[in-house]
Structure formats: structure tokens, C-alpha cells
Design goal:
The complex is a heterodimer of chains A (141) and B (352).
Chain A: E1 18-23, E2 29-34, H1 38-63, H2 69-76, H3 81-88, H4 92-98, H5 101-105, H6 109-118, H7 123-126
Chain B: E1 20-21, H1 33-44, H2 51-57, E2 61-71, E3 74-80, H3 85-94, E4 97-101, H4 106-118, E5 123-127, E6 146-154, E7 157-161, E8 169-172, H5 173-180, E9 192-197, H6 204-220, H7 228-246, H8 248-264, H9 273-286, H10 291-317, H11 325-351
Antiparallel strand pairs in B: 1-6, 2-3, 4-9, 5-6, 5-9, 6-7, 7-8
Classes of the chains: A mainly alpha (141), B alpha+beta (352).
Chain lengths: 141, 352
């Protein structure tokens, strides 16, 4: 890649710039900063929209009484049952059961607290889902 | 390679007694987190080695595609070797001794990090990108193998040199703890590392050919069709079948995932092929072998072809291109890349 071809097409990385390796006029490689590439933006948007879409399906399923709020919050935090199991210290088969309302509704506070901690939210937040579409699938600190 | 910027570590911030800032620390911008963190640690300890050299001597270049092992729902596809292999190879080939430690509890991990900072030692750590709030939201996902360097603490914030960012950042103690002790695949367990010993004159002339030969071997000689050049061809074959196997929509997601692994996660472009070309170029001088220059150029050209693959992949994702024949064309480019790379490694074998 030539230095002049290093894409500067999006502010894809917020206030960060990406390092690309590209050749200068003499053909020597150097690190050239990039603000982002259209191609990356397309595949990144696809991936994130898919996660948002999955979370929204879960949110609607919770409202319809077909899934537990845990499923929504797990997806919103971009986790899988195995990841949630590892981080909450709960067996994976139990996590999978708790994605259904019947099993989730019987959970005691201790297990709820573990899930809440792994998902970085309060138990209160964990017990419900928002009324509107959630776009924010990242943890904000 | 030059450092792009040197940031003053303290700007108009009153230093409290509890604050620790390694003021002589220098940030270096890099393409890849592992080679970048190692280069940053070595350079801050007086060993001037570029990221490209670290990547090359660490034999970072690779290719692997395993359809039945899924990562976030997609087949594992990587353009580089396993996490930590660069650190391991650098230590072995250059005689660097890296002190590394993992921890049973987050408290022990935090204490050890703070003590090292107090001694003025910049520390490499392993983290989960998702909890690093200094990155934009859409750039964060659960990946436990991200390497960064910590060079101080101010109040409740750690001062961080993330190799893939052009400037230094900060991260709250709580977020960093979460990132360091995230569990699951590749769990960091609070891993910290820093060079304990760096030889006076590391033998680059010896290490470079050794490293190149190891990469050639891994790219050409592994008798499993999932890895190296064979792995690239294997992926091309699978790719052609994706529309029939997954349906057009899901097939496009699979293509998107490969393109992300190649471009989005910080590879310096073309799935590490450009950074390796830079390594070959820099090595030509050091081991006095001008043939490496022409081969570096050839690898650059293959890299350009990989970039064309990414452009075409993005068109499929955008659904501008929906026909199943698009996947044939896509696979054809990937095969060309495989042929190109095979030629590169075979030529390398002749000259090192």
C-alpha cells in the first residue's frame, strides 16, 4: 500500500487514529495514521447492527413473556451463555435455564447479584427491560 | 521506524502524593497490540526495536481458518499466530527475559501493578477490550487478548499507552480491573509482564533468518489443510459454498467477519501482510541481504490483493452484489493471494 492510498474516510475510531503500514515515495515502509476505511466501517456496522438486532428481539421476547430479562441483558453486553457463565460463576446449563422466565423468576438474590455484577448493573436493572429500543450495546463506565 | 509522538505525561494536572507517573515514558503508535506492547516495553528499556521487527522476529505472521471452532458465532479466522507467541519468540530469539505473573484475585493483581509503577517500571498487561471505555462504543467487543502498557496512576485513573491508539489514554481503576480479570476464553487472570533482562547486543543477524525460516515453515509445511497457505485455499473453497450453506444473508455476515479479522482489529492493513513486508525491508539492511527487498515488494503486492478482497467483501455485505457468483469471484481473489504468498515464501526459502 502506498502512503497516499491510506484511507482517511471516517472518524471510525472516535478521537483515535489507526496505524497502517504503507510505503512512502522512496518505497520505504512507515507507519501512517488512518482515520478509518469505508470497508471497515461497512463490516463494523454490519456486526454491531446484528448484535443490536439480536438484543431487540430479546427485548420484545421478554415483553411477550417468552424470555427472561437476563437474556436481553446478556445480549446487550455482547455475551454468550458460556461467557456469562464464566464471569458470573454459574454453570452454563443453569445460565441457559435462566434465560427462560420460569426459572429466572425463581432465582434467589445471591444468584441475581452474581449475574448483576458480571453484567455490571444493579439487580433492579437486571430484573426489567427498557420500554424502548436500546441502541447502546457497550458498557459506558 | 520512528515514534510518532511523544506525549508529556503530566499536563496541567497537579501531582498528588499518591500519584505515580513514569515521566520519561514514551508512547509508540503501533498496528498490532502484542507486537506494539512488546516494542514499547523494549524501547522504554533502551532497546530500540521497531514494531515491525518485533512482529517479524516474533514470527507473528500466520493464517488459520477452522470452520467448526466458532468465535462470537463465526468460524475462527486469523491472519496471525496465537496470542503470546510473539512475546515467547522474541524472548527466545533475542535472549530477552520477560518477567510475567498471573493472579488468583483482582486485589493481588492491582497491588502488584501499583508496586511496579511505584518502582518506575512500565508494565504490559492483558485485557478484555470490551471494558476499555476509552475506545469508541462500536469498536469494543469481548476479546480477552488485548495487550496494553500501563505507565502510571493519577487519582483513580491509570495512565495507559494502548499501542493501537495514536495517543496515550486513561482508564478508571474499576474498568481496568474488570478488563484484567474478565473470564472465559483466553482469560487474562490479571497477567502483567515487563522485561527483566535485555542483553547488551542482541544478535539480530542470527535471530532474523531463524524467525523468517520459522514463518516459512508454518506457512508452507504444516500437513493440516487449515493452516498456512493451505488454510487460505481451504477458506476459499469453503467461501464458495457459504451462500448454499448459510443462505445469502448469513453468508454475507461470514464474509464481513473475515474482512473484520483482516482489517478492523488492527493489523496494519491486509491482515498483517504489510507489517511483515516492512519487517523484510528493515531486515534487508540488518542482515545485508538485498534480495529481501524484492520479496518484500512482492508481499506488498499480495497485500494489495488482500485489500481488494476486503473491498469486494464489503460490497457483498452492503448487498450491492448479491449473486452467488460474487462468492466465486471472491474465492478466486483469495486463491490468488494464496498463490502469491506461496511464491513469496518459496523465494524466501531460497535466500535465508
Amino acid at each position: 500500500m502506498k502512503k497516499k492510498d491510506v484511507p482517511q474516510e471516517h472518524d471510525l475510531y472516535g478521537d483515535h487514529l489507526r496505524a497502517c503500514y504503507a510505503q512512502n515515495e522512496k518505497g520505504n515502509y512507515e507507519i501512517v495514521t488512518s482515520a478509518g476505511w469505508d470497508v471497515e466501517s461497512v463490516v463494523n456496522t454490519q456486526a454491531n447492527n446484528e448484535i443490536r438486532g439480536e438484543a431487540e428481539l430479546s427485548r420484545l421476547a421478554v415483553i411477550a413473556g417468552k424470555a427472561s430479562p437476563l437474556e436481553f441483558h446478556m445480549k446487550r453486553r455482547q455475551m454468550t451463555p458460556s461467557m456469562l457463565a464464566a464471569n458470573a460463576g454459574v454453570w452454563q446449563w443453569r445460565v441457559k435455564r435462566h434465560l427462560k422466565p420460569a426459572a429466572f423468576n425463581k432465582l434467589n438474590n445471591e444468584v441475581l447479584a452474581r449475574y448483576a455484577e458480571a453484567l455490571v448493573m444493579t439487580v433492579e436493572e437486571l430484573l426489567q427491560v427498557p420500554d424502548e429500543v436500546v441502541k447502546d450495546i457497550s458498557y459506558r463506565g | 521506524m520512528r515514534s510518532l509522538r511523544t506525549y508529556p505525561t503530566v499536563d496541567n494536572v497537579a501531582i498528588k502524593k499518591t500519584d505515580v507517573v513514569i515521566s520519561e515514558f514514551q508512547h509508540h503508535h503501533a498496528a498490532h497490540c502484542e507486537s506494539g506492547a512488546v516494542a514499547t516495553l523494549l524501547r522504554n528499556n533502551g532497546f530500540e526495536l521497531s514494531e515491525a521487527m518485533v512482529f517479524g522476529i516474533g514470527s507473528g505472521l500466520f493464517f488459520i481458518h477452522i470452520p467448526w471452532v466458532k468465535l462470537a458465532g463465526y468460524p475462527v479466522t486469523a491472519y496471525r499466530d496465537m496470542p503470546h507467541s510473539i512475546i515467547k519468540n522474541i524472548c527466545k530469539r533475542l535472549g530477552v527475559r520477560m518477567k510475567s505473573q498471573r493472579f488468583r484475585t483482582p486485589e493481588l493483581g492491582a497491588k502488584a501493578l501499583d508496586e511496579l509503577l511505584e518502582q518506575g517500571i512500565p508494565v504490559g498487561i492483558q485485557t478484555n477490550v470490551y471494558w476499555l471505555t476509552y475506545f469508541p462504543d462500536d469498536m469494543r467487543f469481548h476479546y480477552n487478548g488485548h495487550n496494553i502498557v500501563v505507565y502510571g496512576k493519577q487519582g483513580n485513573d491509570y495512565l495507559i499507552s494502548d499501542p493501537v491508539s495514536d495517543h496515550v489514554v486513561t482508564c478508571s481503576a474499576e474498568d481496568l480491573q474488570r478488563a484484567r480479570f474478565s473470564k472465559g476464553m483466553l482469560a487474562p487472570k490479571g497477567l502483567i509482564y515487563y522485561p527483566e533482562f535485555i542483553p547488551e547486543n542482541p544478535d539480530l543477524e542470527h535471530a532474523i533468518p531463524l524467525a523468517i525460516r520459522s514463518t516459512i515453515k508454518r506457512m508452507l509445511d504444516i500437513p493440516v489443510p487449515l493452516m498456512g497457505v493451505r488454510g487460505i485455499r481451504f477458506m476459499a473453497n469453503r467461501m464458495e459454498k457459504w451462500p448454499a450453506k448459510y443462505g445469502l444473508k448469513n453468508a454475507a455476515r461470514h464474509v464481513g467477519n473475515v474482512v473484520r479479522m483482516q482489517e478492523e482489529i488492527g493489523t496494519g492493513g491486509a491482515g498483517f501482510r504489510f507489517i511483515y513486508a516492512a519487517f523484510l525491508q528493515q531486515s534487508a539492511d540488518i542482515i545485508n541481504n538485498n534480495e529481501l527487498l524484492a520479496i518484500s515488494q512482492e508481499l506488498s503486492d499480495v497485500g494489495d490483493r488482500w485489500r481488494e478482497f476486503a473491498v469486494m467483501g464489503a460490497q457483498i455485505v452492503r448487498q450491492k452484489e448479491r449473486s452467488a457468483s460474487a462468492y466465486k469471484n471472491l474465492a478466486a481473489i483469495v486463491r490468488e493471494c494464496a498463490d502469491g504468498e506461496e511464491a513469496v515464501y518459496k523465494k524466501l526459502r531460497q535466500v535465508v
